[in-house]
Amino acid sequence: MKQTLLFLLTSLLSIPAFSQSDSSFFKRIPADTSKLKLNMDAVYNRPFLQMGKLPVSIGGYLEANSSYFGTDGVSEGLSFQIPRMTIFLSSTIKKRIKFLSEIELEEGGKEIGIEFASMDIELHPLFNLRGGVLMNPIGAFNQNHDGPKWEFISRPISATTIIPSTWSNVGFGIFGKYGRNNLVWAYEAYLTNGFDDKIIANEENRTWLPESKKNPERFEESFNGIPLTTVKTAIRHRKIGEVGISWMGGVYNKFKEEGIVIDSKRRVDVFAIDFNTTVPKINTYFNAEWVWAIVDVPVSSPSQFGNKQQGGFLDIVQPIVKRKMFGWENSTINLAFRTEYTDYNVGTFDETGENIYDHIIAIVPGISFRPSTQTVIRVNYRYHWQRDLLGNPAARTAGFQFGFSTYF
Amino acid sequence: MRQIINTPTMKKTILLGSIALFIITMVACEKMLPPAPKDEAVLAGTIPGLTPQQEHEHLVGDVAFGKIFTPEQGLGPIFVQTSCSNCHAGNGKGHPTNVLTRFANVNGSIVDYLLSKGGPQLQQSSIMGYPAEVIPGEANVLSKRMAPAVMGLGYIAALSDASILANVDSNDVNGDGISGRVNYVNPTSFFIPQSIHIANGGQYIGRFGKKAEKVTIQDQVVFALKQDIGITSDFDMQDLYNVQAGINTGDNVADPEVSASFVHSLVFYMRTLKAPTRRNADDPDVIAGENLFNQIGCTGCHKSTFTTAQSDIEALSNQTFHPYSDLLLHDMGQLLDDNYPEGNAKGSEWRTPPLWGLGLAKDSQGGQLFLLHDGRATTIEGAISFHGGEAASRRTAFNALSEQEKKQIIKFLESL
Fold first, then answer.
1. What pLDDT was estimated at residue A358?
2. B322 to each of B122, B197, B278, B313, how far by Cα in Å?
3. Is B17 on the interface with A (CB under 8 A)?
4. Cβ–Cβ of A253/B82 closer than 8 Å?
5. Would you list the domain boundaries of chain B?
6. Structure confidence at residue B199 (pLDDT)
7. What is the ipTM of this complex?
8. Contact across the interface for A73 and B33, Cβ inside 8 Å
9. What percent helix, strand, coil does chain B show, rounded to 5?
10. Which fold has domain B284-414?
């Protein structure tokens, strides 16, 4: 299966190589910037290449970087990574029936996954159907995570370890949008397969929602027969920005086996709020997301498995130069700054009444150069403090990252 | 713009600039990374003099010590914690959230550890869908135990029994009110006596554990793997289960869940973990505190210095070290009597805990102190105030000191 998928991907990627001798063979379809776009539009709001008159468009992006990190005086030295390469395939099957897929090769092909593969049936702007492999619309980052859109090499911690971005599952649902003047409002609601009990039985030694991503069975069957519900609503005003509120919840454990009740139903609920805006004239871009997770952890689990988590990030990006540079029109140099906080165990110890820690605080200043909006070359310096469950002196990690990400 | 870049001068400038930027970045990399904490500020690290191969073995053991067990790897089905490092954060003392509970039925001199009822230790945690253990109704004695620090154990393991016996004064012949004795315990089935061990009617001197109930580090490791994490090994294949759920329920992982080599790695790690490094030893208050510590007789039990015997690890051979313990049992009085005998140790008898590392205890206990066998004392003065029995006269002597002198003793203890 993996080999077949690799063959198909290789074949697809070789098409642009053949076409290089004929620039008219591929037609670039730029991302649509004419309308007010929301995070939920991110999957379609990507640059695509269309081959001749074929109804299929392809696209994708690559991320590559190097890093030099050290923790408390110990460094593993310089290393190079290709965190991911992603291929998009899009097609309008028939009027108002669209298909889009996103296939991701992570860590140089070590992991290959279908992140998104859905069919959309457009019935009415306010009521459309979507089915297949969906990205659960929780928070903003999970929906809008393409590397070239970000000035930071590492993904936000809370958005990848509390919300386990990229978090996608098989399911169905509805979505819609309503726009008027400077305002657009949208919603999404899906039922999908969900989490499993590995979120509190894992080698991370804490409640860890990403553990469920390791279960390939979730693309074939639900772990417990109860769907995960994800609902998001967002509103954008052209001058103010976008606010999104989302919730994802369901039962994560196997409470029944062969018809026999073996445990009580235990829920996981994740709430998120996201906001982004661009300050007029100075073009300072703010992007923030905060997430809360509430997990019904059995009382017989050790205290490191928290039943509440929270965290978020704030990104500030300030363009400082925008002009023709090195022969590229409208190139941009940006200064960027991220601050983030992730608390994996909110609460106090029963035994002492003292605060439970297990948190990370990080700051990430950076600079990026964009020869075009589709390509970013970036340098980040990252410093983070991680305290253990008990709040002992923090382990300090810092380092430099240099890399690029580009659509192709 | 393109023309400017294409000029040879500009290309050269960009090239040189890039090289300079690269060099600056590489230098900055080193400067802008967090520095290592001072060796004296942490409990991690190896004993001096290990060979590179031994250093490597230590790192292998370090990984094993931090390994988080999952149900698929044999965790439980009932357990206290999921790894060694959860109870010994940073190799230091434990925290009240990880306190162990031992239970037994004690009727006069008859002690039943209730092995058929889940004894001798409570496993209050369990894997998903399996019931955690509860204290059986037959238990009439509970003993709470805080995890000890694990550094410097290699030195203690390398002591000869003779050097421990040298401090024994069971009948208080010297009249100092202290009558330390050894705890002779039955050896485990996998115990192999070394030249340092002296048998006594088939029993051997325990030197590890709160009541000196374990002869070797390996005894303690195998016991903790099973009783604390629910992990079977080549040395103990019988898994835990909740007796209320039924015999052999809850864990479908093949036994042993870890191999003998995993156990050996853990043992090697602890044998080669350094002893805590003294801090502020030249501080006048610390020196004065040490003198007072000696004067009021604390060293009657908290012996400062020992020398190891010959060891298979050369770096542990004939080494002088300072645990501030005689490793003997002492009657600590009613306040510390847990009524839970182990081996020959009575409820009120405890092995003198080594004081080394006391000044760093807060850094593994979340910024607070939890001292004594169950963590009940949150200050050093508080711990001293619980000293009774053989140590009562030392407590009285401490209380008679001026506030300044008490502070000096505390400062000395914090320097250990």
1. 97
2. 34, 21, 10, 19
3. no
4. no
5. 2-35, 284-414
6. 96
7. 0.89
8. yes
9. 35, 10, 50
10. Cytochrome Bc1 Complex; Chain D, domain 2 (1.10.760)
